[in-house]
Amino acid sequence: MTATSTAEGMASLRQYMADNPGAVIEDAAREHGVMPRAVLEALPDAMRRFVPGDRFEAVMQDIAGWGEITFIVHTEDAIFEFTGEIPKGAMGHGYFNLMQPKGLHGHFRPQRCATIAFVERSFRGKASAFIAFVNVDGGIMYKVFVGREEGGALRSDQLARFRALVSEPVG
């Protein structure tokens, strides 16, 4: 995917994202011939911040204390959504292992996480905040969305923790 690797192409993508900040990241990447990381980077500066991927474990451990969130894996073939709590995890055998037998569980390869993007923007007319774990290839491993109150507003406790993760050292 190199269609937007030129300065002109990146300027075009930045303009597209400024005009369409609520675009689905993966769709915009496909339409512009780039990896999703380029789309995240093209968002207006006020909407996104990045931290190094080596903060993977600390960020995941913090999220485990948030309560109910939405966890999304978006591939070419499907979009998987899980709404619930992310369990605590632990490193073992080169994986970050989620420590519960039911609900969301599995094994992540944190060494593949190059950067972690914190995105706050409007999506379909509502405030939205998510964390995108971006792999070394520029793809999104998965996203964790701040939960919502009954009325649809973002949970203020989770939003505060989201903002603290990007503004203060973790761990």
Structural commentary:
By secondary structure, the chain is of the alpha+beta class. Helix content is 28%, strand content 33%. It is built from five helices and nine strands; from the N terminus they run H-H-H-E-H-E-E-E-E-E-E-E-E-H. It has helices at residues 7-19, 25-32, 36-42, 56-63, 156-167; strands spanning 48-52, 68-74, 79-85, 89-92, 95-98, 107-108, 113-123, 126-135, 140-145. Strands 1-7-8-9-2-3 form a six-stranded antiparallel β-sheet, sandwiched between helices. The protein has a three-stranded antiparallel β-sheet with strand order 4-5-6, with helices on one face. A hairpin with a 2-residue loop joins strand 4 and strand 5. Helix 1 (7-19) crosses helix 3. The longest helix has 13 residues, at 7-19. The chain is globular and about 45 Å long.
In a nutshell, what does this entry contain?
By secondary structure, the chain is of the alpha+beta class.
Poorly predicted parts: none
Count all strands and give the number: 9
Q: For the largest beta sheet, what order do the strands appear in spatially?
A: 1-7-8-9-2-3
The helix/strand series, from N terminus to C terminus, equals: HHHEHEEEEEEEEH
Shape: globular
Helix-strand category: alpha+beta
Computed Rg: 16 Å
For the sheet with most strands, the description reads: 6 strands, antiparallel
Helix count, per DSSP? 5
Distance between the termini: 35 Å
What percent of the residues sit in helical stretches (DSSP H or I)? Answer: 25-40%
Mean pLDDT: 92
Taken as a percent bin, the fraction of beta residues is 25-35%
